[in-house]
Amino acid sequence: MIPGVDNDSIVYLNGDYVRLGDAKISVLDRGFIFGDGIYEVVPCYGGKPFLMQNHLARLQRSLKAIRLETGRGIADWEALVADMLSRSGARGDCSVYLQVTRGVAKRDHGFPADSQATVFCMVSPLKRPNAHKRGQGMTAVSMPDERWLHCEIKSVSLLGNVLAKQYAADAGVDEVLQFRDGNLSEGSSCNIWVVKNGVMRAPVRDNLILEGIRYGFLEQLAADAGIPFESRPIPKAEVAEADELMLSSATKEVLPITQYDGRPVGSGTPGPVYARLRAAYDQAIAAL
Question: Running DSSP on this structure, what letter comes out for residue 29?
């Protein structure tokens, strides 16, 4: 039995549908031995996937980046997501988790010649950000970004992100803002947005951040709302002087950061740019 989860829920594993509590993967799976794999999380509202094509396109990009061939295309992944949602009977908010590893092989760092990819999929309940987080905001501290140089790949090798999240927990805050060579990169598992004088800014989409699906989505929401947007390097001093800070991810959606490094951000309350983006985000979900 696995505590904290529904052990009777049905998951997909290499072509079979089994109870979560009965699902088994070899200890020689390269995902376990090396973290050699990628993953994706598709949020669903009322049982309907949100921005699914974008998530599955990123899944394919990550697979290509690590040279992992599955023989599946976006239509195949889309069918698997739909099948899992149907089997789960999900009618409320949930998330679909997909993970693909290079499969089971003798432990050796080089790619095995004949291994078959391990494909796993499960559906879990999704708790949307509550009224307190929306209305009062999140707290954050800064820290150096010490991760590897291919953060654009949504890899299951998440030790750097785990350590960053624990850094936040040890500091008694919700999140971290990471900096590499003096410039903002991202949070432990979210993109970070900076607002100054009504202009919304985000770090450049390169190998130093995971381009969240909400990155492009919020950029479009900002354009629709007439909010100026810039993608460029953002120095640490500029973050400290921001009028508003925000974070975004599949499960956190978009939330304000109202305290940073022990000081209030702007007025210490969620700002007007966040309010407009939050309203537009909710409208997009309601339109599903």
Answer: B
What is the pairing mode between strands 253-260 and 138-144?
parallel
The residue among 87, 85, 98, 77 whose CA lies nearest residue 18 is 87
Active site residues: 154
Task: Assess contact for 255 and 220: CB atoms under 8 A.
Answer: no
Which residues have C-beta within 8 Å of that of residue 75, sequence separation ≥ 6?
none
pLDDT of residue 79: 98
Query: What is the reported pLDDT for 90?
Result: 82
Q: With 0-12 CB in 10 A as exposed, 13-18 as middle and 19+ as buried, what is 231? A: middle
Predicted confidence (pLDDT) per residue in 3-26, tens digit:
888 888 999 999 999 999 999 999
- Cα atoms found within 13 Å of the Cα of residue 99, Cβ hemisphere only: 21
Residues in the chain predicted with pLDDT less than 50, given as ranges, are none
